Amino acid sequence: MKYKFLFIALIICGAVKAQTPAITPSHLKAAEDVLLAAGAGTQLKENMTAMIAQASANIPADKKPKFIEVMNAFMGKYMNWDLMKDQMAAIYAQEFSEKELKDLAVFYRSPLGIKINQKQPAIFQKSALLGQQAVQSHQAELQQMMQEAFKTP
Questions:
Q1: Which residues contact 34 (CB under 8 A, 6 or more apart)?
Q2: Residue 32: which of 126, 134, 108 has the closest Cα?
Q3: Can you give the residue ranges of every domain in the chain?
Q4: How far is CA 144 from the centre of its chain?
Q5: Model confidence over 75-126: pLDDT tens digits?
Q6: What's the whole-model pTM score?
Q7: What is the CA radius of gyration of the chain?
Q8: Using an 8 Å Cβ cutoff, are 118 and 52 in contact?
Q9: Which residue among 12, 14, 15, 137 has its CA within the 20 to 30 Å range from the CA of 121?
Q10: Which Pfam families does this chain map to (predicted)?
Q11: Which tens digit of pLDDT belongs to each residue from 90-102?
């Protein structure tokens, strides 16, 4: 019985893989071009800085500089652009056709595309703050829900 299940699983995986189009080098190059045109490397760094700043908001003042230092070192080691760009390009290539990627690159090099790139860090930061405020304003309710969910019967 377990071999029958394994056989069926292999067939399904093969069918899914067969439906996924192969990513050609030019398709991957178009994805990399979009990421460069969109300033993804700079955005990644700015987003990480904003996330660390927000994460450090609740850290005691005497520990905050060390916390930021450690987080920057960790993020620099595991979340830097050089390590992530190929994986990000592959994700874009899976989600968009080569033509769509070329069109996106043109957009990101247009005045409106440049403007959205410039505004993204502020939008990201304001959105994160909005989410943080929503949770904080209902923190008591969340704590009560967690207590009820984890009550031992």
A1: 92, 96, 101, 104, 105, 108
A2: 108
A3: 23-131
A4: 30
A5: 889 888 999 999 999 999 999 999 999 999 999 999 999 999 889 878 888 9
A6: 0.65
A7: 22
A8: no
A9: 137
A10: DUF2059
A11: 999 999 999 999 9
